[in-house]
Amino acid sequence: MSEFITSDNLRQLAAEWIAQGIRVAGPQRAGGRVLYLPLNDAANLLLDGFIHPANSAKEFLLPKTETLYGYRVEGHDIKLVEEAEAETPQILLAVRPCDVAAFPFLDHIFNWDYADEPYNQRRRNTAIVALSCSTHDANCFCTSVGLGPASERGADVLLVPLTGDTLEVRCVTEKGRSLFAGKTKSDNVAAMSAAGPAPRFAAEAVRKFSAANFEHPLWAEHALACVGCGACAHTCPTCHCFDIVDEHSARVRNWDSCQFSLFTLHAIGHNPRPDQGSRQRQRILHKFSIYPDKFGEILCTGCGNCTRNCPAGLGVLPLLIAIEHEEHLPA
Amino acid sequence: MKNIYQPELMDVASVQRHTADVKSVKVRFRDADCAQQFQFRVGQFGIFSAFGYGESVFNICSSSTWNDGLEFCFRKTGRVTEALWEIEEGDTIGFRGPYGNGYPVEAWKGKNLIFLGGGIAMPPIRCAIWYALENRADYGDITIVYGARTVADLVYVNELDEWAKRERVRVIRCVDPGGETPDWTGEIGFVPTVFERAQIAAADSVALVIGPPIMIKNTMPVLDRMGLPRASVYTSLENRMKCGVGKCGRCNCGPVYVCKEGPVFTMEELAALPQDY
Amino acid sequence: MSEVFEPRIVAFVCNWCTYLGADLAGTTRLEYPANVRIVRLPCSGRIDFNLLIKAFEIGADAILVSGCHPGDCHYNTGNYHARRRWMVFRPLLEVLGFDMRRLHFTWISAAESRKFQQTVKQVVEETRQLGPYQYPTLPTASSGPGREPQKNHFDPETARQRARALLEAKEVDVVIGYGSSGPVFVRRPEDVDRITCEDTRLNLATYLGRKEVRAMGRVAILTKPMDAGALVVLERESQIESGAVKTIPIGEPGTGTFADLDALLALPPDERMAWWAGEFSRCTRCYACRQVCPMCYCERCVADKNRPVVIDTSPTPVGNFAWHVTRAFHLAGRCVGCGACNHACPVGIDLRLLNMAVHRAVDQNFGFNVGADPKTESPIGSWAPADHEEFIR
């Protein structure tokens, strides 16, 4: 027996959540794109017609800007102003499995020896309803990193679309069950998940090459087209690198990117990664070599956002394929 | 639960100016419980706040047995250090830490200690020297070779004098050729050259070498020639840092986070890391 | 008794005329309201547009900008530069939905103490009637689905032939063209088939500043109709030598229209700003817009400057307005309309509209054609006696 809900009833449920003051976020149209945004009107929620939103859902757990604490200067003295705790419950709705699978990575990093309370607060107050994929595009490679269109990793609930307007509701956790209790109908039909893309590269080959070839012309050749923006890192579900600055009497944490030239710049002017080649190398190494060596997992979910959003069509996939075949890009 | 990014408020107890662009600052915890409970291992670092400007990473250069607060030393270089340059006794700054792995002072017990440093690298060496002197019986002969570009660039000079008076401590001071003053009585030459001239015995020794990359690069062959194994030569790495706790993703040198698994490494460990620093 | 609203006015004034006029008002006991905070600069030409934005950021309810009368500038021509700057900056602020009733410009001389007194009194009273300024406005709940980026199709064959000819004749060392996904750097004639013109989002002139590309030698780039103007601007600004870069044009020029900009201007200002606030609420400061722009060639951008911080780095409403105002204004008389920034933005902010705003201001006011003769002066760096405006009292 499986549980089902129609898309109309799902939107109705979302409207109820919104009316209860829960912050709901999900895929919607904006800026000519599909983006994960706060949902004000459940009618705007998209459940199909897109491969992957142009952004990632991480911004609801790790906001693009966050005040860590404030301070007031009073003569020689400083008074710290603590931030109010993030109590608002939130539900991330219709999030692709490749976004959701990233959340356990973030949980791990933000609790590695030191517990990041701002993150943990938000995490505790969040429920995640994933939406399985019916299809994929040339940029998707979740199956090459051990995931798939029906992955339940990190989810409280996984919705699997059927034909017509019905979705199967697979509750993974207690939190998920309590969200959908009494809202679904049972049936004997089981949803068939999409197959997902054929594997595009062997992750182990990439790890071995990267670990052994710190100085290799491939990095610079590949990075020639890279313009050094943060579109890849900012739209990546697993990228979590951040900056800490003082602005407007507060200490603030903002998204950063290892592709920015200032990322590793020392005050004295020395930069260990002075060009785009070394910066691109860092991105690949961090995800496919360093993180696996340290924590046993690849820090990438194969969502394809980096390649889709890269103004120069890069992202990690072209380089991973090139590495596996140890191809130099033609001169 | 405590926000790990929130610093402790520190009262500035005193500021000492060493050179035209180097100052050291002693600070005390405002919170009495913190002051009482605070401990650190020599070689660890802290992240110090100039509120309104930002945070900067400095080694905690006081000996870990001095309990009256913390000391750090900095060169005026950028936005935050320019702001710190203006602080006076009675001002408030922030501190969070201690972070990092610190020096393996237990493993160093029974050894002769060789300290080699250049310029602004004295503070992270100074704390180790004081620690050794405060636990004198645990350590053998102490040799300190410290140099700077010019006489005016030497820091903690009064302490160099004091160390030289201590038992089985040899202090060699040097300045780069052209950096001497007419009344300079120390050595003239780069630290690696002066160190080699000094013909220090390598038996049962560990060395702590901190300085600009060029100095380290030229010191390693000298230590090799002396017969000191690379696993016995230590250094403290620097990299741009923000969080200090292994989350912001920027200080890694290959697979190693300088803030968590460093900043203290042996030369053997460093040789196994990629040139990412 | 209810509290009377006391507006906060920031006055940016030049040292030699307006400041002395204000000083004279003081010494001759001409009373004027204490609501005004005077910021003294050497010259009105030194009044950076960022300062105006900063004033609104920190809570100014109105701003007064004042300097020497034209012809009387202590530095000869500083106020002419200022006048030209404001002629372009104001239309940008209008498009963004700033309340232009809160922005005042005057010429006040060192003798015109009474004019200073009266101007300040008037500005204070007008602002009192308007009430406090909420800047920036809160975003509209939904800024709508937005525009999908246009994908143009180009036939690669002519370009390939030209590229092959140039490489075979050794007239260039590298041809930068469009491939199936992003740019291709073709160095051998036999590789020209990599030029497929499928992904043509970028303006390839952006690669001309890269040291790795310079190291390759002489360059040819494929150019879509609007792209080539970038080379004119780069030459005008002494970034490339005349004739140093060969172009391989693809596609036919189209006609642009300002219809979308006019539709935006038809909204009331506060709705306009709320719409932009909605657009900017998606901005994460990835700087894709900056990195793809051939005109953004500074090795260190003013947005990355931290001594002092001019533009907040945080992607907050305040920070994002400051960034986008700066980016757009730094393109005045320089943007060639290639659309690379619009294509590059991952979250689909309609940056065209800002670029169009300054483009039209420069075109209408100075008749300047950005892509014409590289020897014509850049409009922002220059001024003309004929510059005419009606907003400086």
How would you describe what is shown here?
The complex is a heterotrimer of chains A (331), B (277) and C (393). With 331 residues, chain A is of the alpha+beta class. Helices cover 29% and strands 22% of the residues of chain A. The mean pLDDT of chain A is 93. Chain A folds into 2 domains: 2-187, no CATH class; 203-324, no CATH class. In chain A, 55% of the residues are buried. Chain B starts with 7 loop residues before the first strand and ends in a 6-residue tail after the last helix. Chain B is built from 7 helices and 15 strands. In chain B, 22% of the residues lie in helices and 30% in strands. In chain B, helix 5 (191-197) packs parallel to helix 6 (213-226). With 277 residues, chain B is α/β, with parallel strands linked by helices. In chain C, helix 1 packs across helix 4 (113-130), helix 2 (49-57) runs antiparallel to helix 11 and helix 3 crosses helix 13. In chain C, the strands form 2 sheets. In chain C, strands 2-1-3-4 form a 4-stranded parallel sheet, sandwiched between helices. In chain C, strands 6-5-7-8 form a 4-stranded mixed sheet, covered by helices on one side. The radius of gyration of chain C is 24 Å and the shape is elongated. Helix content of chain C is 35%, strand content 10%. Chain C has 393 residues and is α/β, with parallel strands linked by helices. Chains in contact: A-B, A-C. At the A-C interface, strand 2, strand 3, helix 8 and strand 12 of A face helix 10 and helix 12 of C.
SSE inventory with pairings:
The complex is a heterotrimer of chains A (331), B (277) and C (393).
Chain A: E1 2-6, H1 7-19, E2 23-30, E3 33-38, E4 65-74, E5 77-82, E6 90-95, H2 97-100, H3 103-109, H4 117-124, E7 126-131, E8 157-161, E9 166-171, H5 174-180, E10 185-187, H6 203-212, H7 217-223, H8 231-235, E11 242-246, E12 250-255, H9 276-295, H10 305-309, H11 316-324
Chain B: E1 8-17, E2 22-29, H1 32-37, E3 45-50, E4 54-59, E5 70-75, H2 79-85, E6 92-99, E7 112-118, H3 122-134, E8 142-148, H4 157-164, E9 169-175, E10 187-188, H5 191-197, E11 205-210, H6 213-226, E12 233-236, E13 252-253, E14 256-257, E15 264-266, H7 267-271
Parallel strand pairs in B: 7-8, 7-11, 8-9, 9-10, 11-12
Antiparallel strand pairs in B: 1-2, 1-6, 2-5, 3-4, 3-6, 12-15, 13-14
Helix pairs in contact in B: 5-6
Chain C: E1 9-14, H1 18-27, E2 36-41, H2 49-57, E3 62-67, H3 78-96, E4 103-107, H4 113-130, H5 157-168, E5 174-178, E6 183-186, H6 211-214, E7 219-223, H7 229-236, E8 246-249, H8 259-265, H9 269-280, H10 288-292, H11 317-329, H12 340-344, H13 352-366
Parallel strand pairs in C: 1-2, 1-3, 3-4, 5-7, 7-8
Antiparallel strand pairs in C: 5-6
